[in-house]
Amino acid sequence: MSIVPAAPAAGRPNPFPVSWTTRAAWLGLAIYSVYAASLLDVTWERFVFGLGNGARFIGRMLPPAFTHMDLLWKGLAESLEIAIIATVFGIVLSLPVGLAASRNLMPIWVSWPARAFIALCRSFHPVIVAILFVKAVGFGAIAGILALIVASVGFIAKLFAEAIEEISLKQVEAVRATGASFMNVIFMAVVPQVLARFTGFATYQLDSNLRNSTMVGIVGGGGIGSTLFTAFQKFDYDFVLTILLAIIAIIFVGEILAGWVRKTFQ
Amino acid sequence: MIADQRRWERFTPRERLLRFTFYLVAVAAFVVSVQTVEVIPEFLYDAPEQVVDLFARMWPMDLKYYPKAVHAALIETLHIATLGTILSLGLALPVGILAARNVVPVTAINQFAKLVLVSSRSVNSLVWALLFVAVFGPGALAGTLAIAFRSIGFVGKLFGEALEEANRGPVEALTAAGAPWPSVFLKAYWPQVQPAFWSIALFRWDINIRESAVLGLVGAGGIGVALDTALTLLYWDQVAVVLATIFAVVILAEIIVTTIRSRII
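Above: the input entities. Below: the structure tokens describing the complete assembly.
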């Protein structure tokens, strides 16, 4: 941090002054890290012991097993289905909720409850929501779908509302001045301004739902997550590696596709 | 007449074809998904009763559970999230630098760094936690590492993108003055990306608070352990206490992050 010229020319201020507040902040961060590490029993011996364990673990993972491919395909297909259905319903629900939450178009008694609803959807992790839905509708894909719909509404509706709040009101006024109905104002003045950003959110959410759909299975929400968790509990670590590689591959492809869709709609 | 000859079109035929293909694929994917997904209708019929039953069991909350088991677990969760974030910042910094095309102008290295980042992001924090529980045994160490490894991809990607947007001017000035590489990074790049870096860190911390709350479900420590215990024993009134605590903490974290962001950025 102290790469400062040894002797600045007289009369010229040092161009890189030392900031003691920044240094104090770095020091505080370091002290906290040590303190928290000791509190959480994160010790060097445990870490080294774990490394040996990890080597054995990786040894059992390699080479990846291609024995239960039918299970893998079934799980992956279900994860994809969960992600697609949840994204579609999430988008459909987010449109009205996001619109209702925008403070520039809606009166406060509409926008405030809508914002509270979005905050509620956002505040719980999809896995926790999935636990509640597993209790409500039983094990299987439907619980995962419902949990991811909640997560999608929390994300898309929030960003959608923010996008609407940033639009130019001139076009809204112009359309209103022609005597257009409320729905016409929305479709002719608001939607064209936010459509590009909205596709961005939607593709991002599909991506995110794909990731999360691999996880809701751990609590019984269907998809590749249940296959993964079962393989883990049976110590089939080589099959676990196959599943992980498949998940990484599918998300990599999904990211490329999402980028392509965003390019098409810009 | 002239108007007929020169009609304005918003999209070229190619663009229209691409859009049409996208709509077609999207609708087809949705229809196929709905038709093939396995739904057991018998489970759906009694869903309303189950929900009513759930809330009846949750209320009144068993508030005595909070001092008994939830409070200590909550503190552990906060430490896991914070320490995991700090660790991920340290790990993501070099990977993000390697991923930035203007800082490291070697395509092979950029691609490799991007692959590392994508792998980190694709594996969910719960799956990372499963892996680390298998390696280090159950407890907060596994949770902290899971949070850190999951965050590398997020922090590294955004940090790399911030670096790529940095202004060339200060970099060229320092290079021209003969500054060594660490000085160029610390005095030309770092001041430009510092606000973005802290903003990313805060954003990730907020997400990590949420994520660390569920890690306990696979044995990686924190408030999720209390949740898991209550769930296994079907003490829904205790589950309600844990959920209320998580809700309060998440809201509080969001308020803290918003306040700090508006102060420093």
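Note for the figure: The longest helix of chain B spans residues 65-99.
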